[in-house]
Amino acid sequence: MRKSPMSTYTNFTVETDADGIALVTWDMPGKSTNVFTEAVMDELNAIVDAVVADGAVKGAVITSGKSSFSGGADLSMIKSMFSLYQQEKAANPDGAAQKLFDLVGRMTGLFRKIETSGKPWVSAINGTCMGGAFEMSLACHGRIASNAKSVKIALPEVKVGIFPGAGGTQRVSRLADAQSALQMMTTGQSLTAARARAMNLVHQVVEPDQLIPAAKQMIKDGLKPVAPWDEKGFKAPGGGIWTPAAAQLWPAAPAILRRETSGNYPAALAILKCVYEGLQVPFDTGLKIEQRYFTEILQTNEAFSMIRSLFISMQELAKGARRPTGVAKTELKKVGVVGAGFMGASIAYVTAAAGIPVTLIDRDIEAATKGKSVGEGLVKDSIGKGRLTQDEGAALLSRITPSADYADLKDADLVIEAVFEDREVKKAVIEAVEAVLPDGAIFASNTSTLPITGLAKNSKRPADFIGVHFFSPVEKMMLTEVILGKETGDKALAVALDYVAAIKKTPVVVNDTRGFFVNRCVFRYIHEAYDMLIEGVPPVMIENAAKMAGMPVGPLSLNDEVAIDLSQKILKATVADLGEAAVDAKHMALINKMVDEFDRRGRKNGKGFYDYPAKPAKKSLWPELKTFYPQKKAEEVDVEVLKQRFLVTIALEAARTIEEGIVTDPREADVGSILGFGFAPYTGGVLSYIDGMGVKAFVALCDRLSAAYGAHFKPTALLKDMAAQGETFYGRFDPYAKEKEAA
Length: 743
Ligand code: NAD
Known about the structure:
The protein has 743 residues and is α/β, with parallel strands linked by helices. It is 50% helix and 11% strand. It starts with a strand and ends with a helix. It comes from Rhizobium favelukesii.
């Protein structure tokens, strides 16, 4: 083995063996995963040149020095390309577009250079291989993947509003059949190594320790340094688009996409266009087509906002953007969970899954043990799906200790209470826990409706008291809302954020208010549906319009999940606390009728706005609902307006939370809205939705809606002021203001 002269790179090492095969190992210093940056592209370009120039080198194997192969392109790089374009657009629109087009083509050109270098390249995929990294692999002449469980292969760009724009659409559609190719790219789904092999996207799947030898063997066996599409007479699998099979696929494809996305994701449609148009032309022309569509997509609000919220902001929040800097990181040695019911049981499970020992307390040991059994069920499922081994499952469960004795919390760093939503019950639990809790340990409440400041009045140490609000199902929902009471201190916030990071969820930190952030917005969504029902909009149109607006679940369906009697309870509590005028009497009448007259409580009792017949039959809207109010004819209802009403009422509520100082960072409102209740992800979240159309246009829309549908659509003072000043949320509440000042 010799280190060739070309081995002095920052992000790669290159070692050439006695057979003349260069092993190029991508291993970026100080990073947990490899990503494509400008510097990485420069170095890879130099390596390709060196491999070509060195007569002693027969071919190259590229792999990763990390446990994953690579996460793909650095999205901050893509975001900065977009920002550059925006800056230059005003002065020189054509020049700016050309510049963006050239930048976009850089990666495409580099990968094509590997493909046409004249020497064979093999990509040895040792772990997760995403986006641009898989596009690079597709440009190699051989692809070989390890069969390790950790290997996931995907082109997930569509999930952040872009698409595989470095040759991915052209190569995948020339290797796999068109239907699988479209499915993979328009959903961004992950493939196992075996599935990638079955789709013809990798050539071999081998044991992890055989990866490099097998990759080198491909070259020794005479791997031809020519891509199939560069061979004369190449035909795409299935014969391209002028075949009977293609005649079945292509007319249906845009319709299927529209059914799945309601036309809200321009990048997904661009994938279809790239493949359809690209398969009719020579490969290099196909690459140009892809480059043009990619340039176009990069200029959309959807791409900009999705990259910002779903990638950059989400990462920043997960890394503790809101964490107080003066407090040392807490390694949680033990967490207590009090209340082993629906929420507590799952909170204990996710905590144990993060490797933290948990004491799970309920009123008696039977109830606590029952709570642990929920974890047992989840572990069994994970073992069944191959996500955990038997040993890992057993170790996870061994970390959950059921108990009925508060004394077992004496060495906990953090206790989370998830007992009944009742002030008196919570008061008793707070007192019982604090009687044993060591100094400096933090008490967190998972309450969904009771303000934290009020609950903290029962605490002897309100500075160590905080809200940590989970969403159901806890093991699936990625968001956690962290709520600061008036007296909550920095240490409590730091510990809560360290805990949320340990269980790998994304936190949003909000100030105390009724409903916090997420539920305030969610109830606006549901209440707008009540208004529509009362106006006589057919229930099915309400549900469909919400989905067409980009919401994952219709509001009536969501209310069934949340429980209609819980809505009733919340409405009643609001009346008790704030008076009759605080709720809409018509809403109250509707919900009382559902619950008191018809016992329709939601999915939990099998009847809500929907009927829930025994499986496999599907749920369907309850026909009687249509008899509640005189029904409008479908043609009397403007679906576009229904869509706007849903998005605007939620966004307006989010704007109110900013105005009231509940949410202080626009990133949190955006990320919280997408992770918490699936707010139309293509918008980038509630505030990006407003910024995207411009505050002035949003205010005008609010004015129109309030004239027609009620005062709850009235734009607020803050919005009117921002409209007058031409401001955006990300400008006025700039999350990076402090860093900019410091710089
Ligand atoms: P649940 O009724 O399923 O569970 C409550 C558990 O607390 C029960 O096991 C009960 O035995 C136990 N408990 C009651 N009094 C106790 C005491 N004095 N000491 C010890 N244990 C006691 O309720 P849940 O749905 O899990 O809700 C728990 C909390 O989580 C509530 O504050 C609720 O508002 C909040 N929350 C619920 C959801 C949800 O979707 N259900 C979502 C977020 C937050």
